[in-house]
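User: Run a structure prediction on this.
Assistant: Running it now.
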Amino acid sequence: MIYPWNAPVWERLKRARQTPAALLLAGPRGSGKRAFAKELAKSSLCPTPDSAGFACGTCEACRLFELDAHPDYRLLEPASGESSEEAGEAGAGTTASRFIVINQVRDLSGFLAVSAHLAGQKVVVIQPTDKLHPSAANALLKTLEEPPSRTMFVLVTDEAQRLVPTVRSRCFRLGFSLPDRQAALHWLRDAGIGSSEVALAQAGGAPLAATELQNSDFWPVRQGFLEALGKVDPQFAEILARAPADHLSLLLGQFYRWCYDLVSLRIAGHLRYNPDHAKPLAELAVKADMAKMMDFIKELLAALRSQEHPLNSRLVVERLAIGYIRATAASAP
């Protein structure tokens, strides 16, 4: 499906005289790029799309696509169960890798070498492309430099700046953006999402990310953590230290949003992420040492970026706890 706010992008692409051999779908997380890529792949493989360019949904090609059995379609995502040396160097675990590895790209060679089975078109979707291991990106570049005929590559990324520049240069970029706040809230309410205003704020204005929060144990974890941060209760450090890997990522993101709001309130009087915790944030903003807080936010961002690498999480948490307590202490007059 195409989300309403992405309809202009679809129309612009379908008005083009010729679809480029390689497309880069780039924009913020939660803007609907993956759904767009799937719909684009399906419509490109459908022999009888409608006047708006959407797949008919009833032909053999569409049925096979919905069953994940279309012979002319390939989807590359971070590998599962990689045990190769490359996956190990990339930081892959025993059950899943954070990277799209070179063997996945090499495995495309057989698919690309043969003619299409059905409508004469083949489609390869790679998501998220910024998770291509460097060796995999180099292997893909060779294919993009001389793309096979009647084959379309669709690369999806939240962070285009992390792609190898030569890969970016081989693609036609389609930019995606988030809907305005009122449109996003209207869509969330129609979708039955409760606490839509707070959910949208927590998701940074991305309505799809807000729906993901609705279906997780995000809210109770967030509530306890933010209450501890508001009181500068050392318990927040224990919450971080005890958190499993998936919750640690969530909590560090919460930590950053909390500190962002604290600084924003002090400097601009504006609250972005946590409107339901405005009072404790305002109380902290009055007394916090802004110079120390800005330094702490840099340290927090470094911790967020390092999540893909094996670190002693206990040491990281202890350092962050000390930095936060110091930054929220009353600044000198």
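The chain has two domains: 4-175, 216-327.
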